[in-house]
Design a protein that fits this description.
mainly alpha, 2 domains, Tetracycline Repressor, domain 2
């Protein structure tokens, strides 16, 4: 049974990597499920079993890109002594760096956002902004528990603000409406936002 689970996990990984490469090389709209299955050395049935359809593959890739935030939230839940806000800034910057250095990802992010508009109308909780928000909210909740969040900010308000900044930066970058780049512009903006919370807390402590 263990070997079967390992094989299934490896098949899933191979399908996901094949889909990512084909989406980046040919464009999401121009890739068929048969092409993905062939490139992965898997059956069409295995692809449907793991991901359902092309949208399922795209959302799996999105979840994978956001994994540093999920891992950070899990790490903080486990009680690490490191600063939640410092770690949040570093995690977002690492996501931006990974995307920035592969220019083909602009098109893939753009497709994700178009699909996100469609799915958010049917299942708002599954939209990219909501899923980014969920992870960031866990991090701010831990910062608040450690009394590192300045008044009048609440974890909900802080997470909403930061997730809006992150998704907004990704949208501007992917649509190429300006010369904004994830590195350094996006990273610098995220650092300024996170630093604002830290300075606000320091000022509040100094005045108390």
């Amino acid at each position: 049974m263990k070997r079967t689970k390992e094989q299934a996990a490896e098949t899933r990984r191979q399908i996901l990597r094949a889909a990512e490469n084909l989406f980046l090389d040919k464009g999401y709209e121009n890739v068929t499920l048969d092409e993905i299955a062939t490139a992965a050395g898997a059956s069409r049935g295995a692809l449907h079993w793991h991901f359902g359809n092309k949208q399922g593959l795209l959302y799996a890739l999105r979840d994978e890109a956001q994994s540093p935030l999920q891992e950070l939230a899990d790490c903080l839940d486990a009680g690490t002594a490191l600063s939640p806000l410092d770690m949040l800034g570093d995690a977002i910057c690492s996501i931006f760096a990974a995307m920035h250095h592969d220019k083909r990802r602009r098109g893939l992010i753009r497709v994700m956002m178009y699909l996100d508009i469609s799915i958010s109308q049917k299942k708002p909780s599954k939209s990219q902004r909501n899923e980014v928000y969920d992870d960031i909210a866990r991090i701010f909740a831990e910062a608040n528990r450690r009394q590192r969040l300045p008044s009048p900010w609440t974890p909900v308000a802080a997470a909403s603000a930061v997730s809006a900044v992150v998704v907004g930066i990704l949208e501007e970058w992917s649509l190429e409406r300006s010369d904004l780049q994830l590195v350094p512009h996006g990273q610098d903006l995220v650092k300024m936002v996170v630093r604002g919370f830290q300075l606000g807390k320091a000022a509040a402590d100094a005045g108390s």
